[in-house]
Design a protein that fits this description.
Layout lengths: L1 H21 L4 H25 L6 H25 L5 H10 L8 H22 L9 H28 L4 H24 L1
């Protein structure tokens, strides 16, 4: 399972980099992909909480919503620091209708694919080992809240840096993909000890 998490972390860093350098994805395109994955991850974490022992108050669940929306806003601000003339609605529409292989709009493939990948992760890492019998809902809530707070803090710092120091998109992408990968590698190292 630790190796699976490591492979996942490497893939999470490699896909945006490959998209940017090989398929000419824009920074906003990559941000939208990240946001969609984040939404599906949040849904899965909510499912885990509901399946586990114990209960979490609605106020706590609203913290997730606030942190997720704040992260989405910061990502948009980061993209805005790079492209002041961006029209977000047009770019979202372009993202959804983007066709690559086979001429099928990405929106038709990406949503079910992300849903399936996150559900499979939920099934393999949570349901099959019956973690819901051992993990309390409050622990799931707290762990995911920490992850959201870490991501929000990291992207706030990156956005602040990009606001004051003009950074090329590639640098933002390497930092945005690389730092979470480094933390995942360190976390994997710590868990293996």
């Amino acid at each position: 399972m630790k190796n699976q998490r490591l492979i996942q972390a490497i893939g999470d860093a490699a896909i945006p980099l490959m998209g940017y350098f090989w398929w000419n994805w824009s920074l906003y395109f990559i941000a939208l992909f990240f946001i969609l994955d984040l939404v599906f991850q949040t849904i899965v974490e909510y499912l885990k909480m509901n399946k586990s022992k114990g209960d979490v108050s609605k106020t706590n669940a609203l913290q997730w919503l606030f942190l997720t929306l704040a992260l989405i806003a910061v990502l948009h601000l980061l993209v805005l620091t790079q492209n002041e003339s961006i029209q977000f609605l047009i770019e979202i529409w372009n993202f959804l209708k983007y066709t690559d292989l086979g001429g099928i709009p990405q929106g038709l493939i990406l949503f079910p694919l992300l849903a399936l990948v996150n559900y499979q992760r939920y099934k393999i890492e949570f349901l099959q080992p019956k973690l819901y019998e051992r993990i309390h809902a409050q622990d799931i809530f707290l762990n995911y809240r920490i992850k959201l707070m870490y991501l929000l803090s990291f992207f706030c710092l990156l956005t602040g840096a990009a606001f004051f120091i003009p950074l090329p998109d590639a640098v933002i992408l390497f930092i945005g993909a690389g730092v979470p990968l480094i933390f995942a590698l360190l976390k994997n190292q710590l868990l293996s000890k």
